[in-house]
Amino acid sequence: MNKILLGLLLGAVLGAVDGLTAWFTPAVRAQLVGIVIGSTIKGIVAGIAIGFFARKVQSLALGILFGLAVGFVLAFIVAQLQHGYYFEIILPGSIVGIIVGYATQRYGAAPAVSAATR
Amino acid sequence: MKFLSDKAVDRLRQNANAPDLSGTRYQLLERVARGGMGVVYAARDEMLDRRVALKVLDVPVADGDLACRLNREARVLARLEHPGIVPVHDVGTLADGRVFYTMKFVEGQRLDKHIEAVISLPDRLRLFLRICDAVAFAHARGVLHRDLKPANVMVGAFGEVLVMDWGLAKILREQSAGKSEEEDPEATILHVPRASDSPADRTQATHVTGQGTVLGTPGYMSPEQASGDIANVDERSDIFSLGAVLRFLYTPPGCEGNQSRAWRHDKALEAICAKAVETNSSNRYISVSDLSADVSRYLDGLPVSARKETIFDKAVRFYRRHTVAILLIAAYLVMRILLLIFSHR
Q1: What ipTM was assigned to the predicted interfaces of this complex?
Q2: Which residues of chain B make contact with A39, given a CB cutoff of 8 A?
Q3: pTM assigned to the model
Q4: CB contact at 8 A, B169 and B76
Q5: Which of A87, A95, A103 sits opposite B325 (nearest CB)?
Q6: CA nearest to A85 within chain B
Q7: For the segment B272-305, what is each residue's pLDDT rounded down to a tens digit?
Q8: CATH topology of domain B110-299
Q9: Domain boundaries along the sequence of chain B
């Protein structure tokens, strides 16, 4: 699977799972659907960005670092919009970024070299 | 009256036995090693101004069986043009009647010495795969090596792996085409290295050949080869030797039972070794490619054909293959649980 598609799928799945964990917080349970949708979109955006990075830079360490940064920034933006739950949003978001960063570098297929660029 | 020391006598003997290269394009430099049928010297090719290895017969006969063997070895090497097989440059006869051939001078170490500095098991296995490549190529060209062992593999300064000493090679295709057996005599006689041999000579001299004899190296030689069962000596005999080489790489001498080994005991790799060195040749791998494919699969963390896995083995292999991903997901789940616990307090 190519790195961008892998990042997108993984970001979407982990984002959705991340959003679903809001069910355990009774105060926000009523907004669960919105949280899941928002979290999934955040995961997709992060996954695509990390997938693009993995395609350009072949480095596990940099991939993980980039994943952490993207996960952190996006989660921070979401937390800002929520006006709260900073720790509960930023920490999981950052770890999801690390997982997607690692996975795209380790498991994503490098793009095929076209005849023109050989 | 003063007697010469053994060392001095040995040096005089070596000088007396040194080949006379007059009339050739080569200039003798130094003795490098003793091969199966003769001695290998370093020489300079004066026409091309390069260092070459020159293998010359011990005995000054140009038409004897040994001379035929050396010529044959050169021809075998000439047909095996592969990066993992030492290339032959020239063949000829010296003024004293001794047959010689020259080949690439490989600057490096024998595999048994080289691996002392290779700690990582995957690195050792990757070296093994390159030996397999060369042997598989030879088999594809109808040539069996029949004396594969760590001492017959050189690792160059730039990591190149070369299979050496094809003096006992057997040409399968010529035989099947009806060539006479005299060209490839195959009685088996084991030669026990002399105490007077130097350590380097001793490893080489395990297969010193005489007329009508073919030898291998105990521990690396297949049972059918050791028993002189010529009819059953085929690619699987080399596979047996490769299995023994693999076991040597996997379990270096002196490390048996040593808890400080750099890698853990691995059932899959043990199974690969065991299958390669099966006493019954029909139970071994069918081809060198199959053996190397299994080693490659092992390196990639995939199941090997030599061993049937239990569910627990599969789980362990999956964990080893995806350790970081599993740990990251576990860390995420633990963090999630901790957040839930603390948010409800």
Answers
A1: 0.77
A2: none
A3: 0.70
A4: yes
A5: A103
A6: B343
A7: 999 999 999 899 999 999 999 999 999 988 899 9
A8: Transferase(Phosphotransferase); domain 1 (1.10.510)
A9: 6-104, 110-299, 311-343
